[in-house]
Amino acid sequence: MKLTTAQALVAWMIAQRSETLDGREVPLFPAVFAIFGHGNVLGLGTALAERRDEIPVWRGHTEEGMALAAVGLAKAAHRRQVGVATSSIGPGALNMVTAAGVAHANRLPVLLLPGDTFVSRAPDPVLQQVEHFGDPTITVNDAFRTVSRYFDRITRPEQLLATLPQAARVLTDPAEAGPVVLALPQDVQAETYDFPDALFEPVVHRVPRPRPDSRTLDDAARILRTARRPLLVLGGGVRYSGAGAAALEVAERHGIPIAETTAGRTLIPHDHPLYAGPLGITGAASANALAAAADVVLAVGTRLQDFTTASWTVFAPDVRIVHINAARFDAVKHGALAVVGDAEATLRELAIALPADWRAAADWTPRATVVRAEWDAHIDKLRAPTPGAPSYAQIVGAVNALSDATDYVMTASGGLPGELVGGWRATGATPTMDVEYGFSCMGYELAGAWGAAMAHPDGLVTTLLGDGSYLMLNSELFSAAFAGHPLVAVVCDNDGYAVIARLQEGQGGAAFNNFYADCRSYHARPPRVDFAAHARALGCAVFTASELGDFRAAYRGARAAAVAQRRPAVVVVRTQPSAWTEAGAWWEVGVPEHLSGGPAFESGKSRQVRQLRRD
Predict the structure, then answer these.
(1) Which residues does the UniProt record annotate as the domain Thiamine pyrophosphate enzyme N-terminal TPP-binding (predicted)?
(2) Fold held by 214-370
């Protein structure tokens, strides 16, 4: 079949299918996000236009935003579907590097197709080409190499025959899932080749379920049998495997309390008697208390990053860790017994290997309910109405109360992850939260919500963000409005980068360059952003609030408007700048060992912080 490189790539994407967790067959690539420019408009752009009825193409307004939308789509689809983003060469390509980092850190599959310079080099240097003085083969797309699971530059059409199966492998393998980048030189996109018909035969990708080594599984069962105070920690891998039910069965049979990581949030209904809450710095004091007392931790499908482990202080020093993970890279961390395999399949086999009469200590199992009740009471106090601007905890509580079980909630950076992870109470049977805290990318909240809205049509997507994130990246609000994808964005305006100010001042530093009041300006009264007017100008329905009661009414109105008008609805609310939910966990940060004693620091407080760090 004589096709251009671009036509062959598009035909291959259309032929790829995927099986969802509930067994439905869907397109592996349900959406392409595109900004066309020189380097992709004639080759890939023409090929997409020819097949526009078979693969939807959505117009974006920043390349970073489009790629982040693809990341949000993958998370909401539980890694069973993959968003595609394409750009021109130069700045268009480089704009997607941050999104590739988000996908890489969070183990989420995306396919990025940046345009590239001419392989022939005949017209060099072309517009937007960055010339490397010592190596003419280097282009800006080489910047993707450090944030890609798989990278290739297609310099001949026939290279697709070897590369595309490898791309599909990485995008659908739970052990390797992450960003695939295929750099497409603009002359090669237009070249033709006689491709074999077999390349375009429909393929249904079913996520593999590798079984663990039987000897290692026996070792895991042996360690667990010695435990009197076991704790089950569920991560994102449980979500992507569809292993929530299997994990709950093991916990119920043996009386094991359960904690969730950030990526594993909403796997377990909040009122389950074994649920201790979310773990770590942005988690709950209840889960952290059990983690500190546990003698064996069964971790499933987690990266065990520093916010989950409180920089590895949340567990007892002598704890034994058994780690079930599809990726050996994660399973071996911190001396854990690495049980490499699919979460669902491995938990089923572990259930058989464990003696039916083995249970956690009789006084340990009910502690989950006791400590979570204490945490719930604490959250209830934080959510209680107060005069004036509401806190983040009150905003999260109101959204939680007014959301349906099938709705989907998101955030990414600043102080809101701590409020959402620590305070949200899940009611449904499927995971419905995306807290991008692997990369903590400001701006993901709006762009990712656009992609999530495509992949989660059965419930309304609500994304929560601060004023800093809104200003960082907001153009995909217009993309969603133009395309007709409903979602609700709650913009919490607290006058600056409040959570970083909290870190700065909490470690002994003086207020500097975070809140607007502490930033340099030639104006006695610097201008303020009118977020409501801005969101309205981007085509959104807009609601405003200044107190908690106002916010509840505004959020109800936004939900109704988003669905009825098929566009984003934005709620702008002034919030308290210094009220936080504290989980009582440690986080290792780089506190200066020497201070000048100048006005930038409070030396006495800094000495105290350093002493606490040593202790």
Answers:
(1) 40-128
(2) Rossmann fold (3.40.50)
